[in-house]
Amino acid sequence: MEDVLLQVQNLTFAYRESAVLKDINVTIHRGEKIAVMGANGAGKSTFFLHLNGVLHQDEGTICLAGRQIQKKTETKLRQKVGYVFQDADSQLIASNVRAEISFGPMNLGLSQKEVKKRVEEALNYMDLEDLAERPPHYLSGGEKKRVSIADILAMEPEILLFDEPMAALDPFNASRVEQILWNLHEEGKTLLIATHDVDFAYRFADRIIVFAEGSILADGDPFDLFHNTDMMEQAHLKAPAMMTVWEALRTANLVTQSLPYPTTLSQVVEAVKAMEAMEERGL
Ligand code: ADP
Q1: Which residues of 55-78 are buried (b: 16+ CB within 10 A; e: fewer)?
Q2: What is the CA radius of gyration of the chain?
């Protein structure tokens, strides 16, 4: 992949005396969907806060589309990189949903007409039209999450950072948010998603970055990474259920070794059906 969007080199940062991020090197390409994993306190949020220009590194560089970001150009990062916080309440401040979503584009200094257009688009995209006049603080958890995503979408960032987007949502709202993530990917957005959910990471991400104690422990293909037992142990990660199921089927010779690993239940069912059909035809 040639289209480098963000390049982080030798980034080091400490809130106080001891480093929280240590010599981080990451290259992010346009259109990637990356799961960022690692134990609590590993440095994922601090890393995200650097990517969207809220924190400034003590050492190292961040380049956006080939341009090195300086302290005075950090607003560029804030425009291009949107951060959806884990806790929607800490992000929502306005007295109604429409006003809430308009804050971001207004702060970008856009014309009233453009602000209005973006707000209506974000309301529509997140299916929030009926809630537009409601105070965000009295919405349900799922609705608040949708407002907090609309907030960021109205800024039209190229890169979206999500901190545990499905945490604390019921299964219906969690799959709704996951579908939004798939849609954003389809539309060409670059996504980095901090998550503890190995099953989601396995079916969604095309790359996983694992943080441990402020360093990058692993960075690569989900399949390879989830087979790296030493690293998994060190990062306190467990294998995704779909992978475990498939390996059990392989061990029991119920599926051929040559079939690719499925990442969803429907793919497992399809593969098993295909095996049955082959057996019936005596192949
Ligand atoms: P994660 O997102 O992986 O849970 P964080 O980036 O939130 O990790 O935290 C990394 C480390 O930085 C932790 O030790 C945490 O206590 C510390 N930390 C996070 N935010 C602050 C802050 N505002 N001031 C001081 N220390 C912080």
Answers
A1: bebeebebebeeeebeeeebeebb
A2: 21
> What is the tens place of the pLDDT at every residue in 222-239?
999 999 999 999 999 999
| Calpha distance 232→245 (Å, rounded) | 18
pLDDT in tens, 148-178: 999 999 999 999 999 999 998 999 999 999 9
Task: Please write the tens of the pLDDT for every residue from 42-83.
Answer: 999 999 999 999 999 999 999 999 999 988 888 889 889 999
| Cα–Cα nearest to 125, from 172, 177, 164, 203 | 177
Nearest CA, atom 11, ligand 1: 41
How far does CA 127 lie from the centroid of its chain?
20
Q: At what angle do helices 141-153 and 112-125 cross, to 10 degrees?
A: 140
* 16 CA closest ligand 1 atom index: 25
What are phi and psi for residue 95, nearest 5 degrees? -85, -15
> In 10 A of CB 112, how many CB atoms?
10
Residue 40 CA, closest ligand 1 atom number: 4
**Which residues lie with the beta carbon below 6 Å from any ligand 1 atom?**
15, 20, 38, 40-46
Phi, psi angle pair for 61, to nearest 5°: -135, 155
Residue 131 alpha carbon to ligand 1 centre in Å: 34
Cβ neighbours around 84 below 10 Å, total: 22
